[in-house]
């Protein structure tokens, strides 16, 4: 009996030591205070909080503080990790922070992050995933249209390779400015049975998007947009990263670094969770029937 008592006494401090919470200092730089960035940040915090870690977080907003002051504060605090949310924050950290591990998030995979202290999660949905969704929601579509510029050639090339693998014909048109968009769309619209938008500010702005969505309905051509905002505005459907889940993915990378992995040994990753939104009114105008299981699978359905 006395032996059991001694075993219990010995186990108590050992158990406490095993499950003690670890304090980790994390500096977070926000490009802005928009809702998608906050969703990603919440996913990061929620995941970290469930891992027996006490995060001591300092937040910095580029819209509220100068970049110089933010960098000075972070270098003075010397946190264990820096999380950047959005492109401006990531570019700043890439230039100014070299000795602290940096995890980037909410940026498009246009540019390579070459710093050995940086890794993270990209925002854009991989071409393969987009085409798999097109196959699911538009099973008869075989010719995909894309308008791109030199800024998004990387994205276009990825789509081209995946189309070859999946027996899609890709009809692309390269433009130099958004002013060329209308003529480019007129040139390819009769050769395609679906149109895929890609992230490119040289191609898409308010007027070109408005033209595309109206022409898509007029020509009975389903447009696949970049977010639910486009779906609500008149796109047939949209695909986008789940921002909250993307934040959780960034947290899994943080845990690897906390446990001793070097950022250079962790390859940047694409989003795993993708959200589909559908516009039923547009589908009806296009003569496309949306099966009930696709409606249930969609994160947002407009025009119910």
Describe, in short, the structure shown.
With 304 residues, the protein is an alpha/beta fold. The chain has twelve helices and twelve strands. A seven-stranded mixed sheet has the order 7-6-8-9-10-11-12, with helices on both faces. A five-stranded parallel sheet has the order 2-1-3-4-5.
Characteristics:
five-stranded parallel sheet, elongated, alpha/beta, 304 residues, disordered N terminus
Walk me through what this model shows:
With 304 residues, the protein is an alpha/beta fold. The protein contains twelve helices and twelve strands. It has helices at residues 2-18, 35-49, 67-77, 87-96, 127-137, 153-165, 181-189, 206-218, 228-233, 243-258, 280-286, 292-297; strands at residues 22-30, 53-61, 81-85, 102-107, 118-122, 143-148, 169-174, 194-196, 223-225, 237-241, 274-279, 300-302. A seven-stranded mixed beta sheet has the order 7-6-8-9-10-11-12, with helices on both faces. Strand 3, helix 4 (87-96) and strand 4 (102-107) form a beta-alpha-beta unit. Helix 2 crosses helix 10 (243-258). The radius of gyration is 23 Å and the shape is elongated.
> What is the distance, rounded to the nearest whole angstrom, between the alpha carbons of the first and last residues?
69 Å
Structural class of the helices, strands and pairings? alpha/beta
| Strand and helix order | HEHEHEHEEHEHEHEHEHEHEHHE
Helix amount, in percent?
Answer: 40-55%
Can you count the beta strands? 12
Provide the residue-averaged pLDDT: 91
Number of helices: 12
- Tell the overall outline: elongated
User: What does the main sheet amount to?
Assistant: 7 strands, mixed
